[in-house]
Amino acid sequence: MRRKFLTNLLLLLFLNLLIKPFWIFGIDRTVQNMVGAEEYGLYFSLFNFSLLLNIILDFGITNFNNRNIAQNNHLLSKSLSGIVILRILLAIVYFIITMTVALIIGYELRQLYILLFLIFNQFIASFILYLRSNLSGLHLFKTDSIISVLDRTLMIIICSILLWGGIFETSFRIEWFIYAQTVSYFIALLITLIVVYGKADFLKLNFDRAYFIAILKKSYPFALLTLLMAFYFRIDSVMLERMLPNGKEQAGIYAQSYRILDAVAMFAFLFAGLLLPMFSRMIKQKQSIDQLTFFSLLLLIVPVLGITSASFFYRDEIMDLLYHQHVKSSSIIFGVLILSYIGIATTYIFGTLLTANGSLRQLNLMAGSGVILNISLNLILIPKYFALGAAIASVVTQTFTAIIQVVLSFKIFNFRLSVQRIYQVLLFLIVLFVFSMLSVNLDFYWGIKFLSIIVFSILLAFIFRIFKIKVLFEILRSGE
């Protein structure tokens, strides 16, 4: 299983590194620089608001379905026939509730217009994720990997034409960015439907009330978990926009820093997408998950620590390279916000393991605590420190929830860590930190020093035998 994980991870990384960095730093960043912090902040806060209630669209069905299909491949056709109708009904409920809440909190006409398109985009994106969960549940990871970058590829093509094609004489508008997403998502949805249809005997849609209720009962713990995690991941920009007189601008400044965290978090998210069906199948078959858990953790955490350290020490240079406005304030926020990457990466390993195990009660208690902590900290810190306050709240919350998930995993699965491995990791951290600090004083271009920290972190992992070349080759050669 470790070989399947590693080989499919390499493919997934290759495709995502080929497409998504250009989307984030080539397209998304350029849009913000062209429309300004306030306009992009308006979009960013509304986008995150549409994500807060996104769980109504999905109701935990995607995660439940991924785990269920991985453990019961023969249920694919029945599941598709019933769940497609259920998701359309949930989309109607999502639209009504989201627009009602938007009216209650006082969104203006233009904000409601933009939100309307973002709601539609969320519906399509959520539907694509559900369809992909069937492919990953069947362990068709290569097909799923290709589809995972399809929507972004289409967006890059359309947005490139809008940004640099010289079609329009007027300046770029944030609405165009949203329209491009709508078209791209819709095309990607049609292609994904065709692929999934070919894998199942999907002849007709069934309106089966009893089946809907049965699915919702099974998936609601996943829904609650996704809702709670969405709140402590995404509520910060919404609170910034609503709480401060210059809220749109502050949300835009926060978005400049958050964009990079979002980009590097993609790397950790890829692990979760592969691990959930693998963990689910292994747990059902009563196979040991110790090796896969710690192999994937170490494979993820080493580059994460390298990226975090390099980003922290060269935060000013990164912001100056990427943006035209609010560079100084953004670099301070980014220096704090990037520290939450360690907690996010840890969550993608241990949270995925607990989800696969069905430990939803414990996870929901953890996520509920995270929401309370995050909102409380934002209420205290945002009025005083603005976007920096939201960044501090994010770091504290992500660290707190990650620690809880690690403790839960060790308790439930009786994991054991050797004292030697603990010393290895501690020594790795100390040497990496010292190297990063010393690199600042070296007379080289900062980009070279930035990359050297990441490369050094990987080399250091081999030196301290956190990674073992022999073991990696054995995994690739074997069927394990």
Describe this structure in words.
The protein is mainly α and 480 residues long. It has two domains: 415 residues, no CATH class; 64 residues, no CATH class. Helix content is 84%, strand content 0%. The chain contains 20 helices and no strands. The longest helix is centred in the middle third of the chain and has 38 residues. The radius of gyration is 22 Å and the shape is globular. The model has no long low-confidence stretch (mean pLDDT 86).
Mean pLDDT: 86
Overall SS class: mainly alpha
Percent helix: over 70%
What Rg do the Cα atoms give?
22 Å
Shape, principal axes of CA atoms: globular
Main β-sheet, in a few words? none
Calculate the terminal CA-CA distance, rounded to whole Å.
5 Å
Uncertain spans:
none
SS element count, helices? 20
- Structurally, the number of domains stands at 2
Give a short summary of the structure.
The protein has two domains: 2-416, no CATH class; 417-480, no CATH class. α2 (37-52) crosses α6 (109-137), α6 (109-137) packs antiparallel against α7 (141-148) and α10 (209-243) packs antiparallel against α11. By secondary structure, it is an all-alpha fold.
